[in-house]
Amino acid sequence: MINDIILLKLGEIVLKGLNRRSFEQKLIGNINRRLSVIGKFKVYCMQSTVYVEPVDETGDMDAAFEALTKVFGIATITRAAGCEKDAAKIAELAISYLKDDMETAKSFKVEGKRSDKRFPMTSIELSQYVGGELAEAYPQCEVDVHNPELTVHVEIRDLAAYVHAAPTPGAGGMPVGSNGIGVTLLSGGIDSPVSTYMIAKRGVRLIPVHFFSFPYTSEQAKQKVIELAEILTAYCGKMTVEIVPFTHIQEEIRAKCPEDYFTLIMRRFMMRIASRIAEANGAKAIVTGENLGQVASQTMEAMASTQAVIDLPVLQPLIGMDKEEIVQTARKIGTFDTSILPYEDCCTVFTPKHPKTKPKVREVAEIESVLDIDALVDEAVAGIERVKVG
Ligand code: ATP
Ligand code: MG
Protein backbone atom coordinates (compact mmCIF):
# COMPACT_ATOMS: atom_id res chain seq x y z
CA MET A 1 0.00 0.00 0.00
CA ILE A 2 1.46 3.36 -1.01
CA ASN A 3 0.21 6.30 1.02
CA ASP A 4 -0.78 9.79 0.03
CA ILE A 5 1.97 12.18 0.98
CA ILE A 6 2.62 15.87 1.43
CA LEU A 7 5.48 17.35 -0.56
CA LEU A 8 7.16 20.49 0.74
CA LYS A 9 9.47 22.64 -1.31
CA LEU A 10 12.01 24.47 0.77
CA GLY A 11 11.98 28.25 0.86
CA GLU A 12 14.90 30.61 1.23
CA ILE A 13 17.05 28.00 2.92
CA VAL A 14 18.14 26.67 -0.45
CA LEU A 15 20.09 29.89 -0.87
CA LYS A 16 22.13 29.28 2.20
CA GLY A 17 24.90 27.13 0.73
CA LEU A 18 27.01 25.63 3.46
CA ASN A 19 24.42 26.08 6.18
CA ARG A 20 21.86 24.24 4.18
CA ARG A 21 22.11 20.93 6.04
CA SER A 22 21.59 22.53 9.42
CA PHE A 23 18.68 24.60 8.07
CA GLU A 24 17.07 21.47 6.70
CA GLN A 25 17.53 19.72 10.00
CA LYS A 26 15.98 22.66 11.90
CA LEU A 27 13.02 22.60 9.53
CA ILE A 28 12.54 18.85 9.83
CA GLY A 29 12.77 19.11 13.63
CA ASN A 30 10.13 21.87 13.62
CA ILE A 31 7.87 19.84 11.32
CA ASN A 32 8.19 16.75 13.52
CA ARG A 33 7.35 18.73 16.64
CA ARG A 34 4.33 20.35 14.99
CA LEU A 35 3.01 17.02 13.66
CA SER A 36 3.64 15.06 16.86
CA VAL A 37 0.38 16.33 18.34
CA ILE A 38 -1.58 15.28 15.23
CA GLY A 39 -0.42 11.69 14.72
CA LYS A 40 2.47 9.53 13.53
CA PHE A 41 4.26 10.74 10.42
CA LYS A 42 7.55 9.98 8.71
CA VAL A 43 9.37 13.13 7.61
CA TYR A 44 12.43 13.00 5.36
CA CYS A 45 14.27 15.13 2.84
CA MET A 46 15.30 13.96 -0.61
CA GLN A 47 16.24 15.86 -3.76
CA SER A 48 15.49 19.18 -1.97
CA THR A 49 11.92 18.17 -1.25
CA VAL A 50 10.65 17.31 2.21
CA TYR A 51 8.26 14.36 2.28
CA VAL A 52 5.64 13.89 4.94
CA GLU A 53 4.06 10.45 5.04
CA PRO A 54 1.52 9.12 7.51
CA VAL A 55 2.84 6.04 9.32
CA ASP A 56 -0.54 4.67 10.39
CA GLU A 57 -4.18 5.70 10.53
CA THR A 58 -3.53 8.25 13.31
CA GLY A 59 -1.93 10.45 10.66
CA ASP A 60 -4.75 12.87 9.81
CA MET A 61 -3.61 14.32 6.48
CA ASP A 62 -6.02 17.28 6.49
CA ALA A 63 -4.84 18.38 9.92
CA ALA A 64 -1.20 17.86 8.94
CA PHE A 65 -1.63 19.91 5.78
CA GLU A 66 -3.25 22.75 7.72
CA ALA A 67 -0.50 22.72 10.37
CA LEU A 68 2.24 22.72 7.72
CA THR A 69 0.86 25.85 6.04
CA LYS A 70 2.06 27.70 9.17
CA VAL A 71 5.58 26.32 9.41
CA PHE A 72 8.23 28.84 8.34
CA GLY A 73 10.88 27.77 5.82
CA ILE A 74 8.44 26.17 3.38
CA ALA A 75 7.83 27.79 -0.02
CA THR A 76 5.08 25.52 -1.35
CA ILE A 77 2.98 22.64 -0.09
CA THR A 78 1.42 19.96 -2.20
CA ARG A 79 -0.71 17.05 -1.30
CA ALA A 80 0.00 14.13 -3.61
CA ALA A 81 -1.40 10.65 -4.14
CA GLY A 82 1.03 7.81 -4.60
CA CYS A 83 1.00 4.52 -6.51
CA GLU A 84 3.30 1.90 -7.98
CA LYS A 85 5.65 3.02 -10.75
CA ASP A 86 3.48 1.63 -13.53
CA ALA A 87 2.16 3.85 -16.32
CA ALA A 88 -1.37 2.37 -16.43
CA LYS A 89 -1.72 2.62 -12.65
CA ILE A 90 -0.45 6.19 -12.67
CA ALA A 91 -3.05 7.20 -15.29
CA GLU A 92 -5.80 5.47 -13.33
CA LEU A 93 -4.75 7.30 -10.19
CA ALA A 94 -4.63 10.66 -12.00
CA ILE A 95 -8.17 10.08 -13.30
CA SER A 96 -9.61 9.33 -9.86
CA TYR A 97 -7.51 11.60 -7.66
CA LEU A 98 -7.88 14.75 -9.80
CA LYS A 99 -11.58 14.30 -10.57
CA ASP A 100 -12.68 17.63 -9.03
CA ASP A 101 -9.85 19.61 -10.62
CA MET A 102 -10.40 18.03 -14.06
CA GLU A 103 -14.14 18.64 -13.93
CA THR A 104 -13.83 22.33 -13.10
CA ALA A 105 -10.88 23.26 -15.33
CA LYS A 106 -11.40 24.17 -18.99
CA SER A 107 -7.90 23.22 -20.08
CA PHE A 108 -4.97 21.23 -18.74
CA LYS A 109 -1.57 19.80 -19.42
CA VAL A 110 0.50 17.11 -17.79
CA GLU A 111 4.01 17.78 -16.61
CA GLY A 112 5.86 14.52 -16.15
CA LYS A 113 9.11 14.31 -14.21
CA ARG A 114 11.24 11.20 -14.07
CA SER A 115 13.72 11.38 -11.21
CA ASP A 116 14.12 7.60 -11.24
CA LYS A 117 15.84 7.06 -14.57
CA ARG A 118 15.09 3.32 -14.50
CA PHE A 119 11.48 4.10 -15.35
CA PRO A 120 10.97 2.95 -18.97
CA MET A 121 9.24 6.09 -20.34
CA THR A 122 10.91 9.49 -20.73
CA SER A 123 9.29 12.45 -19.00
CA ILE A 124 7.73 13.53 -22.30
CA GLU A 125 6.36 10.10 -23.11
CA LEU A 126 4.92 9.85 -19.63
CA SER A 127 3.24 13.28 -19.91
CA GLN A 128 1.75 12.39 -23.29
CA TYR A 129 0.47 9.06 -22.08
CA VAL A 130 -1.16 10.33 -18.88
CA GLY A 131 -2.44 13.40 -20.76
CA GLY A 132 -4.11 11.18 -23.32
CA GLU A 133 -5.82 9.05 -20.69
CA LEU A 134 -7.03 12.14 -18.79
CA ALA A 135 -8.33 13.78 -21.99
CA GLU A 136 -10.34 10.66 -22.74
CA ALA A 137 -11.80 10.48 -19.25
CA TYR A 138 -12.67 14.22 -19.15
CA PRO A 139 -13.49 15.25 -22.73
CA GLN A 140 -14.79 18.71 -21.69
CA CYS A 141 -11.31 19.67 -20.45
CA GLU A 142 -9.03 20.45 -23.35
CA VAL A 143 -5.33 19.87 -23.63
CA ASP A 144 -3.48 23.16 -23.78
CA VAL A 145 0.27 22.90 -23.39
CA HIS A 146 0.92 26.66 -23.59
CA ASN A 147 -1.58 28.24 -21.23
CA PRO A 148 -3.44 25.57 -19.28
CA GLU A 149 -5.76 26.38 -16.42
CA LEU A 150 -4.66 23.22 -14.62
CA THR A 151 -1.23 21.63 -14.58
CA VAL A 152 -1.18 18.01 -13.53
CA HIS A 153 2.13 16.87 -12.10
CA VAL A 154 3.30 13.29 -12.37
CA GLU A 155 6.58 12.48 -10.63
CA ILE A 156 8.45 9.20 -10.75
CA ARG A 157 10.53 9.20 -7.59
CA ASP A 158 12.73 6.58 -5.99
CA LEU A 159 10.10 4.87 -3.92
CA ALA A 160 6.87 5.45 -5.83
CA ALA A 161 5.05 7.54 -8.41
CA TYR A 162 3.09 10.60 -7.32
CA VAL A 163 0.27 12.58 -8.88
CA HIS A 164 -0.74 16.06 -7.82
CA ALA A 165 -2.22 19.33 -9.01
CA ALA A 166 -0.94 22.84 -8.30
CA PRO A 167 1.00 23.45 -5.07
CA THR A 168 -0.33 25.94 -2.52
CA PRO A 169 1.92 28.63 -1.11
CA GLY A 170 3.59 27.79 2.20
CA ALA A 171 4.31 30.19 5.06
CA GLY A 172 7.62 31.31 3.51
CA GLY A 173 10.39 32.69 5.70
CA MET A 174 13.08 30.66 7.40
CA PRO A 175 12.84 27.78 9.90
CA VAL A 176 12.30 29.02 13.46
CA GLY A 177 15.57 28.61 15.34
CA SER A 178 17.80 29.01 12.27
CA ASN A 179 18.43 32.70 13.04
CA GLY A 180 18.95 32.76 16.78
CA ILE A 181 16.81 33.72 19.75
CA GLY A 182 14.97 36.97 20.53
CA VAL A 183 12.81 38.37 23.31
CA THR A 184 9.47 39.68 22.07
CA LEU A 185 7.43 42.17 24.08
CA LEU A 186 3.89 40.90 23.95
CA SER A 187 1.10 43.19 25.14
CA GLY A 188 -2.52 42.30 24.66
CA GLY A 189 -2.83 44.70 21.71
CA ILE A 190 -3.15 44.19 17.97
CA ASP A 191 0.42 45.07 17.07
CA SER A 192 2.77 42.93 19.13
CA PRO A 193 1.37 39.53 18.05
CA VAL A 194 2.00 40.68 14.46
CA SER A 195 5.58 41.81 15.21
CA THR A 196 6.18 38.47 16.95
CA TYR A 197 4.91 36.59 13.89
CA MET A 198 7.06 38.67 11.53
CA ILE A 199 10.31 38.09 13.39
CA ALA A 200 9.55 34.38 13.88
CA LYS A 201 9.16 34.28 10.11
CA ARG A 202 12.77 35.38 9.76
CA GLY A 203 13.83 32.24 11.63
CA VAL A 204 14.07 33.63 15.17
CA ARG A 205 12.97 31.56 18.14
CA LEU A 206 11.10 33.89 20.48
CA ILE A 207 10.57 34.30 24.18
CA PRO A 208 7.42 36.37 24.81
CA VAL A 209 7.60 38.77 27.76
CA HIS A 210 4.52 40.41 29.23
CA PHE A 211 4.49 43.18 31.83
CA PHE A 212 1.61 42.63 34.17
CA SER A 213 0.26 45.22 36.61
CA PHE A 214 -2.07 43.41 38.91
CA PRO A 215 -4.52 44.61 40.24
CA TYR A 216 -4.54 47.59 37.83
CA THR A 217 -4.79 45.07 35.03
CA SER A 218 -6.90 42.00 35.62
CA GLU A 219 -6.28 38.27 35.57
CA GLN A 220 -8.28 38.21 32.32
CA ALA A 221 -5.81 40.62 30.70
CA LYS A 222 -3.05 38.14 31.52
CA GLN A 223 -5.06 35.19 30.21
CA LYS A 224 -5.62 37.12 26.99
CA VAL A 225 -1.87 37.45 26.45
CA ILE A 226 -1.35 33.75 27.16
CA GLU A 227 -4.10 32.99 24.66
CA LEU A 228 -2.37 35.19 22.05
CA ALA A 229 0.92 33.38 22.68
CA GLU A 230 -0.91 30.07 22.33
CA ILE A 231 -2.27 31.13 18.91
CA LEU A 232 1.22 32.22 17.86
CA THR A 233 2.70 28.78 18.64
CA ALA A 234 1.23 27.55 15.33
CA TYR A 235 3.95 29.72 13.75
CA CYS A 236 6.56 30.07 16.48
CA GLY A 237 6.51 26.57 17.97
CA LYS A 238 6.41 25.92 21.71
CA MET A 239 7.24 28.97 23.83
CA THR A 240 7.51 29.97 27.48
CA VAL A 241 5.81 33.28 28.27
CA GLU A 242 7.60 35.29 30.94
CA ILE A 243 5.14 37.31 32.99
CA VAL A 244 6.87 40.15 34.78
CA PRO A 245 5.23 41.76 37.84
CA PHE A 246 5.25 45.45 36.92
CA THR A 247 3.00 47.05 39.54
CA HIS A 248 5.67 48.18 41.98
CA ILE A 249 7.70 49.84 39.23
CA GLN A 250 4.67 51.73 37.93
CA GLU A 251 3.67 52.86 41.43
CA GLU A 252 7.18 54.09 42.11
CA ILE A 253 7.30 56.07 38.87
CA ARG A 254 3.89 57.57 39.56
CA ALA A 255 4.86 58.55 43.07
CA LYS A 256 8.25 60.04 42.29
CA CYS A 257 8.41 61.27 38.67
CA PRO A 258 6.52 63.98 36.74
CA GLU A 259 3.44 62.68 34.97
CA ASP A 260 4.49 63.62 31.40
CA TYR A 261 7.50 61.33 31.67
CA PHE A 262 5.58 58.37 33.03
CA THR A 263 5.31 56.32 29.80
CA LEU A 264 8.89 57.01 28.76
CA ILE A 265 10.36 55.91 32.07
CA MET A 266 8.10 52.89 32.18
CA ARG A 267 9.27 51.83 28.71
CA ARG A 268 12.90 52.17 29.77
CA PHE A 269 12.18 49.73 32.59
CA MET A 270 10.56 47.34 30.12
CA MET A 271 13.70 47.42 28.01
CA ARG A 272 16.04 46.83 30.95
CA ILE A 273 14.01 43.85 32.14
CA ALA A 274 13.68 42.43 28.62
CA SER A 275 17.41 42.76 28.24
CA ARG A 276 18.00 40.83 31.47
CA ILE A 277 15.70 38.05 30.24
CA ALA A 278 17.57 38.06 26.92
CA GLU A 279 20.89 37.67 28.67
CA ALA A 280 19.63 34.75 30.73
CA ASN A 281 18.41 32.96 27.60
CA GLY A 282 21.12 33.73 25.06
CA ALA A 283 18.75 36.04 23.12
CA LYS A 284 20.37 38.66 20.92
CA ALA A 285 17.57 41.14 20.17
CA ILE A 286 14.39 42.67 21.59
CA VAL A 287 11.29 42.74 19.38
CA THR A 288 8.49 45.30 19.79
CA GLY A 289 5.34 46.25 17.90
CA GLU A 290 6.23 49.93 17.72
CA ASN A 291 5.03 51.88 14.73
CA LEU A 292 6.42 55.31 13.88
CA GLY A 293 4.14 58.12 14.98
CA GLN A 294 1.30 55.90 16.19
CA VAL A 295 1.39 57.15 19.79
CA ALA A 296 3.43 59.63 21.84
CA SER A 297 5.97 57.01 22.86
CA GLN A 298 6.63 56.10 19.24
CA THR A 299 8.28 59.28 18.01
CA MET A 300 11.94 59.01 17.06
CA GLU A 301 12.95 60.99 20.15
CA ALA A 302 10.89 58.76 22.45
CA MET A 303 12.33 55.61 20.88
CA ALA A 304 15.86 56.98 21.29
CA SER A 305 15.26 57.50 24.97
CA THR A 306 13.73 54.02 25.35
CA GLN A 307 16.54 52.26 23.54
CA ALA A 308 19.34 54.19 25.21
CA VAL A 309 19.23 51.94 28.28
CA ILE A 310 20.14 48.69 26.49
CA ASP A 311 22.84 47.38 24.17
CA LEU A 312 20.81 44.87 22.20
CA PRO A 313 19.21 45.83 18.87
CA VAL A 314 15.47 46.54 19.04
CA LEU A 315 13.69 44.98 16.07
CA GLN A 316 10.50 46.84 15.12
CA PRO A 317 9.08 45.03 12.10
CA LEU A 318 5.90 47.18 12.04
CA ILE A 319 7.73 50.49 12.08
CA GLY A 320 6.66 51.56 8.58
CA MET A 321 3.37 49.75 8.19
CA ASP A 322 -0.08 51.35 8.08
CA LYS A 323 -2.57 50.28 10.73
CA GLU A 324 -4.72 48.66 8.06
CA GLU A 325 -1.85 46.43 6.92
CA ILE A 326 -1.16 45.42 10.51
CA VAL A 327 -4.83 44.58 11.05
CA GLN A 328 -4.89 42.50 7.87
CA THR A 329 -1.94 40.46 9.07
CA ALA A 330 -3.48 40.08 12.53
CA ARG A 331 -6.61 38.67 10.90
CA LYS A 332 -4.59 36.36 8.67
CA ILE A 333 -2.64 34.85 11.56
CA GLY A 334 -5.73 34.56 13.75
CA THR A 335 -4.79 36.92 16.59
CA PHE A 336 -7.10 39.86 15.79
CA ASP A 337 -10.27 38.63 17.51
CA THR A 338 -8.40 37.93 20.73
CA SER A 339 -6.47 41.21 20.56
CA ILE A 340 -9.63 43.30 20.44
CA LEU A 341 -11.12 41.75 23.59
CA PRO A 342 -11.62 44.73 25.88
CA TYR A 343 -9.11 44.19 28.67
CA GLU A 344 -6.88 47.00 29.85
CA ASP A 345 -3.13 47.04 29.27
CA CYS A 346 -0.56 48.25 31.78
CA CYS A 347 0.32 51.16 29.48
CA THR A 348 -3.20 52.51 29.38
CA VAL A 349 -3.71 52.42 33.13
CA PHE A 350 -1.34 55.28 33.91
CA THR A 351 -1.32 57.12 30.58
CA PRO A 352 -0.31 60.76 31.13
CA LYS A 353 -2.62 63.53 29.84
CA HIS A 354 0.25 65.32 28.10
CA PRO A 355 3.00 62.82 27.40
CA LYS A 356 6.41 64.17 26.34
CA THR A 357 6.82 63.49 22.65
CA LYS A 358 10.30 65.00 22.18
CA PRO A 359 12.22 63.99 25.27
CA LYS A 360 15.98 64.43 25.58
CA VAL A 361 17.68 61.23 26.64
CA ARG A 362 19.72 62.98 29.32
CA GLU A 363 16.66 64.68 30.75
CA VAL A 364 14.79 61.39 31.13
CA ALA A 365 17.81 59.75 32.75
CA GLU A 366 18.06 62.56 35.25
CA ILE A 367 14.38 62.47 36.14
CA GLU A 368 14.34 58.72 36.73
CA SER A 369 17.52 58.85 38.83
CA VAL A 370 15.38 59.41 41.94
CA LEU A 371 14.32 55.76 41.61
CA ASP A 372 16.37 52.80 42.81
CA ILE A 373 16.50 51.41 39.31
CA ASP A 374 18.66 48.33 39.91
CA ALA A 375 16.68 47.18 42.92
CA LEU A 376 13.37 47.61 41.08
CA VAL A 377 14.65 45.66 38.08
CA ASP A 378 16.04 42.89 40.33
CA GLU A 379 12.76 42.64 42.18
CA ALA A 380 10.71 42.39 38.97
CA VAL A 381 13.04 39.77 37.46
CA ALA A 382 12.93 37.71 40.67
CA GLY A 383 9.13 37.70 40.55
CA ILE A 384 8.76 36.42 36.97
CA GLU A 385 6.12 33.77 36.42
CA ARG A 386 6.70 31.37 33.51
CA VAL A 387 3.85 29.85 31.51
CA LYS A 388 4.47 27.22 28.82
CA VAL A 389 2.37 27.38 25.66
CA GLY A 390 2.13 25.08 22.65
P1 ATP B 1 0.30 46.75 20.91
O1 ATP B 1 -0.89 46.76 20.03
O2 ATP B 1 1.27 45.67 20.57
O3 ATP B 1 -0.06 46.80 22.37
P2 ATP B 1 0.59 49.61 20.83
O4 ATP B 1 0.41 50.22 19.52
O5 ATP B 1 -0.55 49.62 21.80
O6 ATP B 1 1.09 48.11 20.61
P3 ATP B 1 2.32 50.60 22.92
O7 ATP B 1 1.30 50.31 23.94
O8 ATP B 1 2.99 51.92 22.91
O9 ATP B 1 1.83 50.35 21.43
O10 ATP B 1 3.46 49.52 23.02
C1 ATP B 1 4.49 49.43 22.07
C2 ATP B 1 5.10 48.05 22.17
O11 ATP B 1 5.62 47.85 23.49
C3 ATP B 1 4.09 46.94 21.99
O12 ATP B 1 3.88 46.65 20.63
C4 ATP B 1 4.75 45.81 22.72
O13 ATP B 1 5.78 45.23 21.94
C5 ATP B 1 5.38 46.53 23.91
N1 ATP B 1 4.46 46.52 25.07
C6 ATP B 1 3.56 47.45 25.44
N2 ATP B 1 2.91 47.10 26.57
C7 ATP B 1 3.41 45.91 26.94
C8 ATP B 1 3.15 44.98 28.02
N3 ATP B 1 2.25 45.23 28.94
N4 ATP B 1 3.87 43.85 28.04
C9 ATP B 1 4.79 43.57 27.10
N5 ATP B 1 5.07 44.39 26.09
C10 ATP B 1 4.38 45.53 25.99
MG1 MG C 1 -0.49 48.49 23.63
Number of helices: 15
- Which ligands are bound? adenosine-5'-triphosphate, magnesium ion
General form: elongated
Average pLDDT for all residues: 93
H/E element order: EHEEHEHHEHEEEEEHEHEHHEHEHHHHHE
C-alpha-based Rg, rounded: 26 Å
How many E-type strands? 15
The portion of residues assigned to helices is: 40-55%
Global structural class = alpha/beta
Strand % is 15-25%
End-to-end gap: 34 Å
Which consecutive residue ranges, at least 5 long each, have pLDDT under 50? Answer: none
Q: Biggest sheet, in brief?
A: 9 strands, mixed
Task: Describe this structure as you would to a colleague.
- The chain is built from 15 helices and 15 strands.
- By secondary structure, it is of the alpha/beta class.
- The strands form two sheets. Strands 1, 2, 3, 4, 5, 6, 7, 8 and 9 form a nine-stranded mixed β-sheet that branches. Strands 14-13-10-11-12-15 form a six-stranded mixed β-sheet, with helices on both faces.
- Helix 5 (123-137) links the parallel strand 5 and strand 6.
- Adenosine-5'-triphosphate is lined by residues 185-187, 189-192, 209-211, 288-290, 294-295, 297, 345-347.
